[in-house]
Amino acid sequence: MSERLGPLPFAQMSASQQMVAQAVIDGPRGALYGPFIPLIRSPELMDAAQRMGEYLRYHSAIGTRLSELAILVTARQWNQQVEWAIHAPIALEVGISADSIAAIAARRRPEDMGKEEAAVHDFCIELHQERAVSDATYATVCELFGERGVMDLTGINGYYTLLAMVMNTARTAVPASSAAPLPT
Q: How far apart are CA 118 and CA 180, in angstroms?
């Protein structure tokens, strides 16, 4: 399947597209890639999304390591190869074990998780698969991370679901990655 909404040359972007693209390039991401390639078609949506994503990815109440775990669970739930290719190597770098990453890719519950990882994993799985979170899972996440942590974790799931939908619709090209692709 061919990419539907591929890269736009910067010079061919409208002024509002250029402004939003430059904000992403100048921010912590440092480049326009992945979901931002199709999102640039709607600069207002992209601007709002990228600001939310910057907070959730780099400043959430659950921290980078657990955010990356939540991103992997979301990528797996949506069979999103671009998210997986980008975030599986980052997750490994920030301390998510290779065994946990492989288990998530295989749609299995990782066995080697600590209490925080297990709470995040279970919350994400329940939210995606049941469209709700049990009282027990909610209480565990709230006890570990507070109400802000519950909201940030919910936001990570929602934000990366949005990006998965965007890239699945656009058929965004998968970048080179040290991570094996998700099994189909």
A: 23
Total Cβ atoms within 10 A of residue 137 = 20
> Domain limits of the chain?
13-179
Name 142's Cβ contacts closer than 8 Å, sequence gap at least 6.
149, 150
Tokens matching residue 29: 């991401």
The pTM of the full predicted model, rounded to 2 decimals, is: 0.95
pLDDT tens figures, 17-51: 999 999 999 988 888 999 999 999 999 999 999 99
Query: DSSP class of residue 132?
Result: S
Is residue 79 within 8 Å of 179, Cβ to Cβ?
no
DSSP secondary structure, 67-111, as one string: HHHHHHHHHHHTT-HHHHHHHHHHHHHTT--HHHHHHHHTT---S
What is the CATH T-level fold of the domain 13-179, as seen in this structure?
Answer: AhpD-like (1.20.1290)
Q: How far apart are CA 46 and CA 153, in angstroms?
A: 21
Average pLDDT over the chain, rounded to an integer: 96
